[in-house]
Structures are given as structure tokens and as C-alpha cells.
């Protein structure tokens, strides 16, 4: 019985550990989440659990799925449009077996819209989900889990200026990701920036409503941003019912950003 209890205890510890936020940088910041507008929260929750190995969580009214490196949170709302055409075009996963993920996606009745060799030389694909959600896959055969969040992709004519804004605001480290030269890392999540031939729309109201960063001392960080002249859509506040301290800003391109303290405890 003792051995059985020890084995079960190990499983209970190991499952959440695979779905934690990635390490904080020296400024106490890491990438935290994407927040989706969806018409059917149970359906979309099931998608991220079944296809990407996520773990469903809820605190108060906030429902989300934990994945390695970030969470996907949900708001019950009809999106005004899909993610393509907005400044945050998509987010992407490393997957251990891309063929298996594509096959399962198609079997569930969803579309694989493009298959190609990606910027880092590996098999890639785009998936289309409910509400026009765009997700990119990149195969990584030595991945120890089914899937892990890899990147968030921004498209805007002013992509180089936007990259610099994120690097300055969140103390990120620039690097090339394969053939994409204009990227920066926020923990284990890469933010990739490329051009768009025409202006792209703000994110708020669309399928990807906003993106998020977790900050160790959010109140102090918000004061730093205010001192830099950054305007807040929603000032710093504590929301005990969902276990988060939050604030909202908008980047120069129109991407809506939630700043949080507490998602690392989910």
C-alpha cells in the first residue's frame, strides 16, 4: 500500500509539473497565456486537452487549460473575427509526432490548412479551429510530451519597431528563430515578428482577444511602466476570486495585453 501511495503521489506531482509556465527572466517576467473569445467553452477546452495534452483548470469564473509553457484561457463570447488578419496571427506548438496530431485533428472534423517546411527546417502545418483560430505545429521528435507551446506570431508592417517595444518593455532577449531574424524569447515562448503587406487589426474582440505576461511583482512593474509613459486600459488591481492580480495595456500595434501575477500558481 505504501508503494502504491508513493506511486500515485508521484503522478499527482508530475502531471501539473508538465504544464507550468516557463522560467522567469532576470526582470521577473515570463510569457503567461493567450485568452480566447469562444462560443463553446467546454468544446474548446476539450480540444486543448485531447489534442495537445492540456489540463483543464478553473478558479472562480475563470476557465483555462494548462499547457507546457503557458495557459489558454477562455471568455464566453462570439468573436468578431478569426485570428488571421489581426496583429497576433497565431500561436504555435512543438509536437512530438506531427502526422499523428494532423490525423487526429482531421478525424475530429477540423481543417489542416497548410503543410510546409518551417523556418527552422522541420515539418510544419497550420490548423484551423473554432472561430477562425489559427494554430501552427512544428515537429520536434525528442519532445518529452505530446505538445508544448513554442511561439506567438505577430504580423504588422511596423514589425521591427514592435519587436523593439517588446524587448524594451519586458526585458526580452532578441534572437533569430531559424530564418526569422526578428524574434525574442519570453521564457520558453518565442515572440516572432514579421511584416504584413497591409495594416493588421487590433486583437480585442477577435478569437485571440489578448496575450499575457506573468510578472513576479506586478504592482511595482506597473509603476515602472507608468513612469515610462505607458497608458493602462485597466490599472493594477487584485482579483482574489480568480487568484490573480491583473492590469491591461495595449501595444503600439493594437495587441491587447494582460499583465498578471498568479498564473504560475494555477
The strands making up the biggest β-sheet line up spatially as 2-3-4-1-13-16-15-14
**Integer-rounded radius of gyration:** 18 Å
SS-based class: alpha+beta
Overall body shape: globular
The strand count comes to 16
Estimate nothing, just give the exact number of structural domains: 1
CATH class: Alpha Beta
Question: From N to C, what is the helix and strand string?
Answer: HEHEEEEHEEEEHEEEEHEEE
CATH architecture type: Roll
What's the average pLDDT?
93
In DSSP terms (H or I, runs of 4 or more residues), the helix count works out at: 5
Taking the alpha carbons of the first and last residues, their distance comes to 30 Å
Task: Pick out its properties.
2,3-Dihydroxybiphenyl 1,2-Dioxygenase, domain 1; alpha+beta; 266 residues; eight-stranded mixed sheet; single chain
Amino acid at each position: 500500500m505504501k508503494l502504491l501511495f508513493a506511486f500515485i503521489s508521484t503522478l499527482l506531482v508530475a502531471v501539473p509539473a508538465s504544464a507550468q509556465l516557463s522560467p522567469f527572466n532576470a526582470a521577473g517576467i515570463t510569457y503567461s497565456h493567450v485568452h480566447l473569445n469562444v462560443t463553446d467553452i467546454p468544446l474548446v477546452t476539450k480540444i486543448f486537452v485531447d489534442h495537445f495534452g492540456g489540463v483543464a483548470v478553473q478558479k472562480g469564473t475563470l476557465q483555462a487549460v494548462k499547457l507546457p509553457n503557458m495557459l489558454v484561457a477562455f471568455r464566453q463570447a462570439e468573436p468578431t473575427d478569426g485570428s488571421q488578419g489581426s496583429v497576433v496571427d497565431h500561436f504555435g506548438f512543438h509536437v512530438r509526432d506531427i502526422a499523428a496530431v494532423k490525423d487526429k485533428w482531421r478525424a475530429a472534423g477540423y481543417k489542416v490548412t497548410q503543410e510546409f517546411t518551417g523556418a527552422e527546417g522541420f515539418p510544419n502545418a497550420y490548423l484551423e479551429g473554432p472561430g477562425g483560430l489559427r494554430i501552427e505545429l512544428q515537429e520536434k521528435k525528442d519532445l518529452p510530451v505530446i505538445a508544448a507551446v513554442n511561439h506567438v506570431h505577430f504580423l504588422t508592417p511596423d514589425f521591427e519597431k514592435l519587436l523593439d517595444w517588446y524587448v524594451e518593455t519586458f526585458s526580452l532577449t532578441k534572437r533569430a528563430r531559424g530564418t526569422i531574424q526578428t524574434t525574442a524569447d519570453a521564457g520558453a515562448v518565442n515572440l516572432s515578428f514579421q511584416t504584413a503587406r497591409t495594416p493588421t487589426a487590433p486583437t480585442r474582440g477577435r478569437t485571440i482577444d489578448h496575450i499575457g505576461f506573468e510578472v513576479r511583482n506586478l504592482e511595482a512593474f506597473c509603476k515602472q511602466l507608468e513612469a515610462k509613459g505607458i497608458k493602462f486600459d485597466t490599472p493594477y488591481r487584485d482579483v482574489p476570486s480568480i487568484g490573480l492580480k491583473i492590469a491591461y495595456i495595449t501595444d503600439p500595434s493594437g495587441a491587447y495585453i494582460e499583465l498578471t501575477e498568479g498564473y504560475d500558481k494555477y
